[in-house]
């Protein structure tokens, strides 16, 4: 029987990123561009970092074997580097999704003028706990769903890999 587990927190320390995302949203004035750029950056930064790590970690023996079979350029990348980097890329996708959801929650609840968390944060009004709890529950369901999708994608793409 296989065990499954749900992680309560992403693999990377996300609190410094969360504070930086809120500060960046305030500096950029809460514009629509900032609300689109920050989630994209939160997803792409770990993904690109892990992709570069995976490509650099390619086994030199496999690269030499590929070259001895007349692979070069894109064909070497496609048949040797990419399959070796795929576990790293999927790890970056998991980390990026964790940061993406945290960034979206921060932006939705605190970084827009009409956000439901602003009155609580500023102490200007009664907290609307129902809306906040509903938003948090919705983000939790979406986060768990996206994590399950990436795990299924990982199982399918890395089915050649021993467990």
UniProtKB/TrEMBL annotation:
SUPFAM superfamilies: MetI-like
Source domain of life: Bacteria
Cellular component, GO annotation: plasma membrane
Swiss-Prot/TrEMBL GO biological process terms: transmembrane transport
Domain ABC transmembrane type-1, first and last residues per copy: 26-157
Pfam families: BPD_transp_1
Name listed for the protein in its UniProt record: ABC transporter permease subunit
Transmembrane segments: 100-119, 131-153
Gene3D superfamilies: MetI-like
Keywords, comma-separated and alphabetical: Cell membrane, Membrane, Transmembrane, Transmembrane helix, Transport
Subcellular location: Cell membrane
Membrane topology category: Multi-pass membrane protein
């Amino acid at each position: 029987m296989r065990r499954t587990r749900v992680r309560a927190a992403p693999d990377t320390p996300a609190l410094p990123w969360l504070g930086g995302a809120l500060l960046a949203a305030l500096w950029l004035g809460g514009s629509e561009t900032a609300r689109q750029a920050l989630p994209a950056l939160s997803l792409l930064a770990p993904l690109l970092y892990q992709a570069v790590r995976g490509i650099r970690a390619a086994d030199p023996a496999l690269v030499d074997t590929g070259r001895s079979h007349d692979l070069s350029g894109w064909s070497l990348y496609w048949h040797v580097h990419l399959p070796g980097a795929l576990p790293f890329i999927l790890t970056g996708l998991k980390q990026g999704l964790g940061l993406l959801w945290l960034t979206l929650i921060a932006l939705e609840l605190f970084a827009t003028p009409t956000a439901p968390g602003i009155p609580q944060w500023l102490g200007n009004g009664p907290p609307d706990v129902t809306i906040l709890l509903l938003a948090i529950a919705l983000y939790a369901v979406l986060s768990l769903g996206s994590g399950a999708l990436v795990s299924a994608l990982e199982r399918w793409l890395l089915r050649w890999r021993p467990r």
